Amino acid sequence: MEKLFTTGFITEFFVGEQYDIAGQLMLIWGQIRASLVVYMAIVVAINMLFGRKPEKRYKFEPFEDDVELGSSVYPLVLVQVPMFNEREVYQLSIGAACGLSWPSDRIVIQVLDDSTDPLVKGMVEMECNSWKSKGVNIHYQVRDNRKGYKAGALKEGLKHDYAKQCEYVVIFDADFQPEPDFLNRTIPFLHHNPELALVQARWQFVNSNDCLMTRMQEMSLDYHFKVEQESGSITYAFFGFNGTAGVWRMAALDEAGGWKDRTTVEDMDLAVRASLKGWKFLYIGSLRVKNELPSVLKAYRYQQHRWSCGPANLFRKMTIEIMKNKRVNWWKKLYVLYSFFFVRKIVAHIVTFTLYCVVIPATVLIPEVIIPRWGTIYIPTVITLLNAVGTPRSFYLVVFWVLFENVMSMHRTKATFIGLFETQRVNEWVVTEKQGDASKAKAATQRSQSRFRIGERILMLELCFGIVLLGCACYDLAYGKYHYYVYLYLQAIAFITMGCGYIGTQVPSS
Questions:
Q1: pLDDT score at 8
Q2: Active-site residues: which are they?
Q3: Angle of helix 212-223 relative to helix 398-421, nearest 10 degrees?
Q4: Quick one: pLDDT at residue 443?
Q5: CA angle 252, 258, 259 (to 5 degrees)
Q6: pLDDT, mean of residues 453-474
Q7: Are 251 and 203 in contact (CB under 8 A)?
Q8: Which of 82, 164, 229, 459 is deepest in the core (most CB within 10 A)?
Q9: Is the pLDDT of residue 510 over 60?
């Protein structure tokens, strides 16, 4: 009897209502995530108020030509541009890399072409030869196989003698177009601060206005850069390398063990290993590099699978290694394991999907399950507002963003479990499709519409889930008392819309 009384008291004390254990756990994790989001936002806000710019935290002195030494005062820099069948963007990326402002005898451009299309391969090689005829020190490198995908290409590229002579290595994916002053704004930080291993720039999206899907991606990624990367750089001098638009110190890359292809997030893998060696990272939010967002739903889903599955798999592989590490303190290890990996890369996806797409619909069918207001209103509102503030121009799209993210949370949750349990698709790597400029994108969309098959258009899991939510909404409208049907109808429409393929620039023809 005493045991029953104690249990009831504790339940009443924590929630004030009686509901299921699973729902309670989801709400607790939601509260933890909200606290973390608020903490990171406060760190960024304080930094903005007190003006702790990178130049004030680290020494920065621009390079100047020396009368006696000439250009030798500039360190030797390697610029790597990995590619795979990049028909639409190869000219833009190669041209931008070759246009970087740096002494011509102190920079080496390396195009790593893993293309399987002979026509594309020939075009890329011709472009490289064209720049070489203009006096640019550019090397066109190919491999016999695609082992290790991007990580394998980058690793192979560093084996060449001319690459080993370089002090720093810059990486740009095929759709990235840096401004000419990129090296002048990043290399001095590394050159004058020997503790720094990485300088990361922010992404700027050239096609964010293409469609509603790209606008919502912009909102999520702006939050990632403005809050997550900025707060990590300020508090722990650590964040996940974004895989592109960054400069690595070659010595740090070598000490960390170089590129590894054990997961689909080779960039994050390298960043964590370098951090465990005691190296620091710097994020420069004011330095932006143009790039392209995936505007086709299929490409976006493949990208999100890789970005969700990879971190979960890396967490599985590195947890013991991080705990046993003796080079960094326990606070940093706790930050990497708990905040960086567990909460943001694993729990965030699972909680979002379980709470808002499973638990809430379940309360409609099981009236005894009651969710307190802080779980259904206050926490989601806080997280949503803090995410949306990163992109003020898209604030009016916040409802669409919430619904879109909830749909994608199902895809990300599935990928997270694949990574944690290392199932069949754990190392699946599909290169994100690029469309190039707007005119090419429109032409590509028109071509794709003509060959869009019904099997490629319909996403059965999303469609079926949308139908279930629609049924829950109708049931709540008829018999419910908490008015969840307002949310459920909207979420069901979002699932069904995406399930039918009506999102992104590749809209199925009627």
A1: 42
A2: 114, 267
A3: 70
A4: 46
A5: 130
A6: 89
A7: no
A8: 82
A9: no
Kindly state the tokens that stand for 120.
């594309």
Mean pLDDT of 484-510: 86
Per the CB < 8 A criterion, the answer to whether 194 and 255 are in contact is no
Alpha-carbon distance of 429 to 180, in angstroms, equals 31
Q: Which residue has the tokens 């960094």?
A: 328
Distance CA 57, CA 149 (A): 36
Average pLDDT over residues 122-147: 97
Q: How many residues does the chain have?
A: 510
CB atoms within 10 A of CB 229: 23
Structure tokens at 351: 């909680």
Burial class (CB in 10 A: 0-12, 13-18, 19+), 455: exposed
Percent of the chain whose predicted confidence (pLDDT) is above 90: 68
- The amino acid at residue 332 is K
Query: b vs e for 381-400, b when ≥16 Cβ sit within 10 Å of the residue's Cβ?
Result: ebbbebbbbbbeebeebbeb
- State yes or no: pLDDT of 225 exceeds 70: yes
Alpha-carbon gap, residue 95 to 89, rounded angstroms? 10
- Residue 481 confidence (pLDDT): 83
C-beta of residue 357 within 8 angstroms of C-beta of residue 412: no
CB atoms within 10 A of CB 149: 18
Closest C-alpha to 443, from 107, 88, 117: 88
User: Is the pLDDT assigned to residue 401 strictly greater than 70?
Assistant: yes
**How does DSSP classify residue 59?**
-
For 148, the token pair is: 């290790």
**pLDDT score of 382:** 76
Question: What's the rounded mean pLDDT across residues 24-51?
Answer: 67
> How far from 216 is each of 90, 210, 223, 395, 397, CA to CA, in Å?
26, 11, 11, 10, 8
pTM, rounded to two decimals: 0.90
Residue for token digits 């190392």? 427
CB 302 within 8 A of CB 310: no
Tokens of 294: 């995936």
Parallel, antiparallel, or unpaired: how do β-strands 138-142 and 107-113 relate? parallel
Q: How far apart, in whole angstroms, are the C-alpha atoms of residue 152 and residue 133?
A: 29
Q: Which two tokens stand for residue 381?
A: 């509102």
Tokens 């810059």 identify what position? Answer: 170
Residue with tokens 């808002």: 356
- Whether residue 23 is predicted with pLDDT greater than 70 in this model: the reply is no
Phi/psi for 283 (5° steps) reads: -105, 130
- Count each helix (H run) and each strand (E run) in the chain, helices first: 23, 7
Measured CA to CA in angstroms, residue 228 lies from 233, 252, 413 at distances of: 9, 23, 20
Residue 439: CB atoms within 10 A of its CB come to 9
**What tokens does 128 get?**
């490289």
